[in-house]
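Risk register update: the risk that structure generation would not scale has been downgraded. Supporting records follow, first protein first.
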Amino acid sequence: MRKFFKIFCIIFFLILSKNNLSFSAIKNNIIAKVGNEIITLIELENKVNTTLILANQKINQENINKLKNISLKRLIDLKVKQSEIKKFNITLNEIAIENHMKKISKNLNIDPSELKKFFELNKIDYDQYKNEVETEFLWQRLISQLYSSKININKDQIEKEVLEFSKNKKKNLEFKLAELEVNYENETKNELIKELKNSIDKIGFSETVIKYSISSSAFNGGEIGWVNSEVISSNLIDKIKNLKIGEISSEIIGVDTLVFYKMVDKRFSDGAEKINDNNIRKKIIDIKKNELLNLYSNSHLSKKKNSIIIKLQ
């Protein structure tokens, strides 16, 4: 499946390059079928342009060429998710969607009531973007619904971590983090790392997250909020504990993903805040559950992609 998709991408973009076709020339053409879902060239154009504008980047041929491949992959993932979501009765959290759109407005320094107009002025499709956001939130709910009962947390390990935390409760260091997570393949891993680092240097971390990250946190510029140093895994803490505010970690290589972390802020939480063991226990469990749900999400999506036929039209 992955091999076929790579061949599809190569053929498709070679055709575009060979004939020097612009997006606008064949906007309504169907460029791919993902099961029963379709992707049109106008969707790809809008995806690329929306990504560039939200990342505060110019819409020029160089930037378009850099994003065409990853944008097509994202659209394929989106169609797979939409196809899977239709099989279940998942309720949309309207408040979460509204809060997300407010965050986007804040990042753009505009009033939330002006967001749709902002999209129109920049000639990008507001409804397509909102639909993508809704799909991501529905997908998160679906994964939680399917796999929450399958998550087994080692209670002894949790209690050990709670005990360690309690011993050092007087002053605990907390990190406010942002993440950039991307898929990679071994043969292009080093090239991708170089590309991401160059992008971070050139346009900044948040903008690079918007352009490249596959994580749901990409919608928030990668921010994952405050995390207590005592509940972070030892592998991660070694990578980030000495980062200064604003600094970015070296790449953390997983099975098929690369992750970079940015230190947004640091603070000490005072024991006088009356943090009790039950709250700490809940925080630790929530972090571990989210880590496992992310793994289930990637695995579930991968399985569904491998079972769906992707056709070049």
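Supporting record for the second protein:
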Amino acid sequence: MSASRPSLSTRFGLTVTMKKTEVILQPCNRSSYTSPKVTAGDTKLAATDKFCYLGSFLSSDAQVNDDISSRLAKASQAFGRLSKRLWDDHGIRLDTKVSVYVAAILPVLLYGCESWTLYRHNIRKLHVDQFHMRCLRRIAHIRWQDKIPNTEVLQICGVTGIEAFLMSAQFRWVGHVTRMDDTRLPKIAFYCELEHGTRSLGGQRKRFKDMLKSNMKAYCDMQPNKLESLTSDRSSWRTLFKEQVSVFDDNRVQSLQVKRAQRKTGQPPPPPDGGFTCDICSRVCASRIGHFSHRRTHITS
């Protein structure tokens, strides 16, 4: 009779103490994180809220803010080292500088972005607020006094926005994962679901699959339920998502240009899908909640 396999705690002498209410993967935004108590024999091991693993930062709140801040710092250092030799040299053509930026700087910035779960404030931080547009303006020698919008800067440099790079990297990685064997750990983690536990009240934190489905449906005109069939052929999937991401970036730039023209002329933007018309004063509201609030003004007046 073969002996049963000893448990992890028996083999290594580890003891993990954690309350039942603390066994959650992603605590809600308003809850405080309680670090687990881990002991090896009689020695208590120190717990940390975040650590670097293979160049990426993993945090206890399952967010990518620390990882993005680290990537921004490393990309800024790499960009600064080429200032005198490349960016400030007027004898080098602009397309050569942009090619070096795409090949040498963006990979440092977007390292590990394939598994990021990004919100709009994360994308703004990467695109406009801190890095991408600032670097392109530095490369093209465009100052803020020139009053050139970001859309024209992208056209001058001949590159897309940072969101297009992010979506392309994630679609490419998802294609690799779905074509893996079913026994591979990345595919198991990609398709896994929690069997126990309850969802907290209010809005939930977005998962990677949630953002992937949103990007496929809202921006790239692809059906998430056909993901396996779309990614089964590598070359066709690569051509498909590159075309859809290119169309998305063109539409994004066009919408920004329209909004800027409307701001210059002083015209309000048209409400989406015809808006919501008030049955009392015929005013058109852009959103349903705005229409509800407007009708309350007639009731209280």
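DSSP finds 13 helices and seven strands in the chain. On this basis the risk owner (M.S.) recommends closing the item.
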